[in-house]
């Protein structure tokens, strides 16, 4: 019996010496290399570390120095100067589930290709780490990251696991191309739901704070978000700038406040923007709201050729549409003011009152093309219930027929300017007049126009202007059919007889001042020339009693009478 006892004691002593030797060897560079080689050869992972350190003062902690870890054939998932692994009695039943894993001074790359990882932890802690998450919905890159995830149970396609609490700060961070610094994020993951109870960051020389949550379908709800003093320059167009929002399944905004922001893109800009948005949901290219509100003002807004100064906008959202309580702006040297409603049922914009004063506006070169273009799907009609113009200057620099009107005044009611997504004058009444005008290098004074439109015809009941010596008066009508058949009856008394030559009628064989009577008709169609459709008759007599009558057929003129000599 004594021999068996001594034998067992000897075997136990040898085992203890072997364990102690292995313990000492593992903490050498040679031992670290052997462990790294064994794991690399016998698993689907590659591991390299220089040293393992264990101290009896902290018996539940193993420290690895200069660690590189990753999947075979993939870029390294982890590169760190030190990894502190906290173990517990749980390792007896689940050896790959750690108590804590703390990463120091390195880089952690987590992507769908790297997950699932072979181990888990009750807590994953980061200390001065860089963090990258490429090839995911959130293209994330962060530096100087400190914080933790509890618990950490990575799985395929979900590097943070299905359920975890997150508390992370970062010195700098870039999310989907948007940089930020001094970032703080606190929240919770539950399956595919994300609740961010704290979001704080310095970005674009300003700051962002708020709370938000993501549902299982990928939609976001912003409970509260505030942006202060943002100064952002983008290389994207305005549509591309907001594209990430439109691609979300839904975005529900509880409260969004923007203060003193300056944003700029290649063809757009806004300065000194203050914005307050409440209770609005964006989803699948549309919006919904029960009691939403928008208040916005800025010093300057630019979008293409549109340039607004001091715009102010106040609107309310409801299931029925948008109530535009106020819109005012300085535009092209003048003032623009309106209010009204956009109605969801008919996608109709109804402006109750439009006032334009002091405008100095040159029409864009392609304004005729824009007038013929189809309006977007959300805008089927535009109605001005009441409008007023005061002291405006409007210029068209079209080389084929330039014109301008000075001190343009006007008023009108129930003017339907768009119908079935097409611009036009479809209904209503309007009266316009100016102090002076020039039409294709012909100067006139006191031009005036009065019209009435209905579903079948635009009737110009009055069209008059004073020339250098006389007066021109006319009446006209334009059909609302696609052919746009137009008729005009023009009378001139004491006017230069060549006045209509500048407007397209061939030169007359008589000269001087006199009286003219013109009746003409033609078709003003979108893609067809006007001249071949014009038929008319002109009678002119000058002060010397010379008289001529001409007939136009298909745009060609024939003279019926010849001028008689002066007696």
Tell me what the structure shows:
The chain crosses the membrane at residues 7-26. It comes from Leclercia tamurae. Helices cover 9% and strands 59% of the residues. The protein is mostly beta strands. It has a 35-stranded mixed sheet that branches.
Largest sheet: 35 strands, mixed
Give the strand tally. Answer: 35
Hey, roughly how much beta strand do the residues contain? over 45%
**Radius of gyration over alpha carbons?**
40 Å
**Which oligomeric state applies?**
single chain
Q: Which stretches are poorly predicted, pLDDT < 50 over at least 5 residues?
A: 17-22
Q: What gap, in angstroms, lies between the N and C termini?
A: 164 Å
Transmembrane segments: 7-26
Protein name: AsmA family protein
Pfam families: AsmA
Domain AsmA: 1-539
Key words describing this protein structure:
35-stranded mixed sheet, mainly beta, 567 residues, AsmA family protein
Short characterization:
This is AsmA family protein. This protein is mainly beta.
């Amino acid at each position: 019996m004594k021999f068996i006892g001594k034998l067992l004691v000897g075997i136990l002593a040898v085992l203890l010496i072997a364990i102690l030797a292995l313990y000492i060897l593992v903490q050498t560079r040679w031992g670290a290399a052997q462990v790294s080689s064994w794991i690399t050869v016998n698993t689907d992972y590659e591991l390299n570390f220089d040293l393992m350190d264990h101290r009896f003062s902290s018996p539940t902690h193993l420290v690895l120095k200069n660690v590189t870890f990753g999947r075979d054939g993939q870029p390294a998932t982890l590169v760190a100067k030190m990894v502190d692994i906290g173990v517990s009695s749980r390792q007896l039943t689940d050896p790959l589930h750690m108590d804590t894993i703390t990463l120091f001074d390195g880089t952690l790359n987590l992507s769908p290709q790297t997950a699932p990882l072979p181990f888990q932890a009750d807590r994953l802690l980061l200390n001065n780490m860089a963090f990258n998450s490429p090839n995911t919905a959130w293209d994330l890159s962060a530096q100087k990251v400190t914080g933790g995830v509890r618990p950490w149970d990575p799985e395929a396609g979900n590097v943070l696991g299905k359920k975890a609490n997150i508390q992370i700060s970062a010195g700098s961070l870039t999310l989907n191309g948007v940089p930020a610094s001094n970032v703080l994020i606190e929240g919770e993951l539950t399956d595919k739901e994300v609740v961010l109870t704290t979001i704080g960051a310095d970005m674009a020389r300003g700051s962002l704070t708020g709370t938000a949550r993501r549902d299982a379908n990928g939609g976001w709800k912003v409970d509260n978000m505030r942006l202060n003093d943002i100064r952002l320059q983008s290389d994207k167009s305005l549509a591309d700038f907001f594209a990430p929002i439109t691609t979300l399944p839904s975005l529900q905004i509880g409260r969004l406040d923007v203060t003193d922001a300056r944003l700029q893109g290649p063809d757009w800009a806004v300065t000194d923007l203050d914005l307050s948005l409440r209770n609005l949901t964006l989803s699948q290219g549309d919006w919904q709201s029960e009691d939403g509100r928008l208040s916005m003002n800025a010093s300057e807004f630019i979008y293409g050729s549109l340039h607004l100064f001091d715009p102010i906008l106040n609107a309310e959202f409801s299931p029925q549409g948008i109530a535009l309580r106020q819109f005012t702006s300085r535009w092209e040297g003048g003032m623009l003011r309106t209010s009204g409603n956009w109605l969801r049922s008919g996608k109709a914009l109804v402006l109750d009152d439009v006032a334009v004063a002091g405008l100095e506006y040159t029409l864009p070169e392609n304004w005729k093309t824009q007038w013929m273009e189809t309006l977007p799907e959300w805008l089927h009609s535009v109605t001005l219930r009441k409008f007023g113009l005061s002291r405006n200057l409007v210029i068209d620099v079209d080389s084929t027929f330039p014109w301008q009107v000075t001190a343009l005044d006007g008023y009108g009611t129930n003017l339907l300017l768009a119908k079935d997504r097409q611009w036009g004058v479809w209904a209503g009444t309007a009266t316009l007049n100016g102090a002076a005008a020039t039409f294709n290098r012909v100067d006139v004074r006191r031009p005036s126009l009065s019209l009435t439109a209905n579903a079948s015809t635009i009737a110009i009941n009055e069209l008059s202007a004073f020339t250098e010596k006389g007066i021109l008066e006319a009446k006209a009508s334009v059909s609302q059919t696609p052919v746009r058949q137009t008729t005009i009856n023009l009378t001139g008394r004491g006017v230069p007889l060549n006045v209509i030559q500048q407007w397209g009628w061939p030169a007359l064989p008589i000269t001087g001042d006199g009286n003219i009577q013109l009746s003409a008709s033609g078709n003003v169609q979108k893609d067809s020339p006007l001249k071949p459709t014009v038929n008319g008759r002109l009678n002119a007599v000058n002060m010397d009693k010379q008289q001529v009558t001409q007939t136009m057929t298909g745009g060609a003129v024939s003279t019926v009478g010849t001028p008689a000599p002066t007696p």
